[in-house]
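Hello forum,

I keep getting stuck at the same step: I have a sequence, I want structure tokens, and every attempt I make locally crashes halfway through. Rather than fight my setup again tonight, could one of you with a working pipeline run this one for me? It's a single chain of 173 residues.
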Amino acid sequence: MTAGRPDPQRRSFEDYVTARWAALYRTAHLLTGDPTAAEDLLQTTLIKVLAQWNRVRNADSPDAYVKKMLLNEMLGERRKSGRRSEKVHLVPVPVPSVDPVAETSSRMDLWALVQVLPPRQRAVLVLRYYEDLSEAEIAAVLGVSAGTVKSQASLALRTLRAHQTQHSTEEVS
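Reply #2:
Ran it on my machine without issues. Output:
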């Protein structure tokens, strides 16, 4: 490498991050529910991506590879921290007060419910309904079978429906 010339590998990584930052941050934010935790998760993941950049950029789908690293980092952090009573990554995204729908008394905050789902169920829902990935793509990203993706999605949706039914019953009472 010549002085004054950027390392081509590092430049390629910087170009990738510049082009994909918004989408990766959105995924991290949806997974964590907290902008600060999302940024920390993404930064930690990108440090690991840089260390493995040759492998990542030569993958069939660099985005899928990075998303898998992002999810592994999130799930790994949860395992490391154990079952602490304080879970920063489960803080719901605040609803802006200017949203007229949020001010109606009958509106249920679905996003807050998604945030309390177990991380793998939340990841499946985020990848399916926000990232629009197929079951096979989600399975590849998470490193699980398509059956596991289906069962995790089913459990998550059942939990959300149960909360919705409970909320509707409470409103009638």
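Residues 69 and 82 are 20 Å apart (CA to CA). If your local run keeps crashing, start a new thread with the error log.
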